[in-house]
Amino acid sequence: MTNKRKVAILGATGAVGQRYIQLLQGHPWFEISVLAASERSAGKKYKDAANWLMETELPKEIAEMPVANIDVVSCEKTGDFDLVFTSLPGDLAGPVEAEFASLYPVFSKASAHRMEKDVPLIIPEVNADHVELVKVQQQRRGWKGFISTDPNCSTIQMAITLKPLMQFGLRQVVVTTMQALSGAGYPGVASLDIIDNVVPFISGEEEKMETEALKILGTFENGAIKNADFKLSASCNRVNVKDGHLESIFVKLDQDPSIEQIEAAFEDFRGAPQLLKLPSAPAQPIVVRHEKNRPQPRYDRDTGKGQSVVVGRIRKDPIMTFKYMCLGHNTVRGAAGGGILSAELYVANGLA
Ligand code: NAP
User: Fold this and answer.
1) Domain check: are 240 and 134 in the same one?
2) Whose CA is nearest to atom 19 of ligand 1?
3) 103 and 225 share one domain
4) Residue nearest to ligand 1 atom 12, measured at CA
5) Given a cut of 70, is residue 302 above it in pLDDT?
6) pLDDT at 259 over 90
7) Residues 321-325, mean pLDDT to the nearest whole number
8) Shared-domain flag, residues 142 and 180
């Protein structure tokens, strides 16, 4: 690719926005040209607006960049751009993303538009063919750009592991999550609520997992998504871990594959990003650990630079067919890393 695409990040000062900035450093196809956030941050230099939380240094040129307010006019005044990454609170994202999408491709981490019939909900390894839905959206809405959404962070890692299981006839899934603090954004959960504690409720999370997975694993037929036909029940918890969601997943299948067949299905799984050699694609989307006490967030969340999902403890179950543990980095694969991979997929398909 000769000319890099210029990108705007809306919500650039938050937990996900910061991860976008970190992961886009040195990206071969994209360069950051606009950073935008709320009125609290607008008009300041980025280093004064954001409390930088990443493990790497804040890049010098980003530190000095001005932060724009999150509207098209203010962003266009601050710099020119070709596409938009958004990581805004859900309620705000609805109208703001629609305004940008009338002109630009928008890649959203927010929930606002995910379940709309003409909006793709993309995990590049799982449903790359759903990107074509943006053509239906553009025609219907008369937009020059479009909105493509990424699923909720807990859904992404689970759905990547469910995809290779569909060959065995997926019938029922029961998932319990142990979700990291960075999933609640910054400053997120108050320390006195989470130290020495587990919070057994995350607003809206169970509903998102139960509905989004069916759309993602569905089929794209005659210009529309037909939901996958299986049942899913989710129970979501916040735990005292910085990054990395751990999930305990029970699965009922039509067939009764051996543990070796299940492991092979996970390990051999590849998708469009690997075939297309997209810049942010992990070599292996699902990595299987064989130790009896893995995966663990602290040791395994950075597998494949945070873009791989790690599974382990694969074993038979007396009620369901089998069960396993699944770990993903929520702000990399579950957020900015997933968003960048989606945008790469659209570029590779000539859609952005
Ligand atoms: P966050 O840390 O709270 O950041 C929110 C961002 O939105 C900040 O840049 C903030 O700017 C901006 N913002 C807040 N209110 C605004 C307003 N009224 N007008 C304009 N900008 C405003 O949240 P986050 O964790 O990054 O999450 C962002 C989105 O990604 C959410 O929809 C979340 O559900 C989704 N998501 C998060 C994760 C995760 O692991 N954290 C994973 C997947 C999806 P200021 O700094 O100026 O306030």
Assistant:
1) no
2) 38
3) no
4) 11
5) yes
6) yes
7) 98
8) no
Residue 331 alpha carbon, nearest atom of ligand 1: 40
Q: Are residues 99 and 169 in the same domain?
A: no
7-40 pLDDT, tens digit per residue, is: 999 999 999 999 999 999 999 999 999 999 999 9
The model scores a pTM over 0.90: yes
Contact 259, 311 (CB under 8 A): no
Q: Is the CB of 41 under 6 A from ligand 1?
A: yes
Q: Which domain holds residue 321?
A: 153-329
Is the separation of the CB atoms in 47 and 66 below 8 Å?
no
- Of the pLDDT bands very low, low, confident and very high (cuts 50, 70, 90), residue 271 is very high
The count of domains in the chain is 2
CB 267 within 8 A of CB 289: no
Output the average pLDDT for the chain.
Answer: 97
Q: Give the residue, by CA position, lying nearest to ligand 1 atom 29.
A: 87
Q: Show which residues are catalytic.
A: 153, 245
Angle at CA of residue 189, ends 342 and 107, nearest 5°: 15
| CATH number of the CATH domain containing 63 | 3.40.50.720
Binding site membership of 86 for ligand 1 (Cβ less than 6 Å) = no
DSSP 109: -
Check residue 2 and give its pLDDT: 62
Do 174 and 45 lie in a common domain? no
Q: How far apart are CA 144 and CA 326, in angstroms?
A: 39
Q: What is the CATH number of the domain that holds 245?
A: 3.30.360.10
- Tell me: do 279 and 139 sit in the same domain: no
> Are 96 and 242 found together in one domain?
no
Residues 131 and 254 in one domain: no
Look at residue 1 in the predicted model and tell me its pLDDT: 64
Q: Is 89 a pocket residue for ligand 1 (Cβ < 6 Å)?
A: yes
Contacts of 112 (CB under 8 A, 6+ apart): 90, 91, 93, 94, 97
